[in-house]
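Example record

One chain of 83 residues, shown exactly as stored in the release files.
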Amino acid sequence: MVRTPLTPEERERGEQLGRLLREARGARSMTEVAAVAGISAETLRKIETGRAPTPAFFTVAALARALELSMDDLVVRCALVPA
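Predicted structure tokens for this chain:
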């Protein structure tokens, strides 16, 4: 299956999500947070670094729960402000 290339806006939104998750993780290890969320540490690493800019909804929901973040807050904070 061929994926449509991501737009610059989609990439930027993915990078913002990664920054927010990394910030929320704080001093906790990737392995610890990933285990609580039920995902691999490599998946979390890819999301945090922007290499997986469009993670699945349920992955983001699991990470939000593990990090005690509001999905509503994530949506607002990842929304791109028009230039």
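Notes: The chain has a mean pLDDT of 91.
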